[in-house]
Amino acid sequence: MSVFFNHVPARELGTTFTHYGLFCGCVPVYLGALDTDCPAVAARNGVPEFALDLAEMVFGACCLICSLLNPEFEPSYPFRVTGRIKP
C-alpha cells in the first residue's frame, strides 16, 4: 500500500517513472516507459494500492462483459497522461 509502505522513492521519480497519470480517470498513478508495450505503473504516493487493484478489477469485469457481447472487442488500458515529472 502506497499510503504507509512501498512508497515510490524520490530517486525513481523522473527516471523510472517519468509521467503523472490517471487509470480509468479516477486512480492517480505514476507512469514510466510509455513508448514500450508494457509501461511501468505504480499508484502515486498517498494513494492506497488497493484503489488501483479495485479499478483494475472493475475494468476487467467490463472488458469481460464487452468481449462476451462482441467477440471482436479488443480492450486497451485506459491511462490518461496528465503531466511530466520534472527531475
Backbone structural class: alpha+beta
Strand percentage lies at 15-25%
Largest sheet strand order: 3-2-1-4
Approximately how much helix is present in the residues? Answer: 10-25%
| Strand segment tally | 4
Principal-axis shape = elongated
How many domains is the backbone divided into? 1
Along the chain, the helix and strand elements come as EEEHE
C-alpha Rg, in Å? 14 Å
Number of contiguous helices: 1
Compute the separation of the termini in Å: 24 Å
Instruction: Give average pLDDT, whole number.
Output: 88
Report the uncertain regions: none
* Largest β sheet strand count, sense and barrel closure: 4 strands, antiparallel
Commentary on this structure:
By secondary structure, the chain is of the alpha+beta class. The protein has one domain. The protein is built from one helix and four strands. It has a four-stranded antiparallel β-sheet with strand order 3-2-1-4. A hairpin with a 3-residue loop joins β1 and β2. The mean pLDDT is 88.
Q: Quick gist of this model?
A:
The chain contains one helix and four strands. It has one helix at 49-69; strands at 19-23, 27-32, 40-43, 79-84.
List keywords for this structure.
alpha+beta, 4-stranded antiparallel sheet, 1 helix, 24% helix, 24% strand
Question: Layout of helices and strands, plus pairs?
Answer:
Layout: E1 19-23, E2 27-32, E3 40-43, H1 49-69, E4 79-84
Antiparallel strand pairs: 1-2, 1-4, 2-3
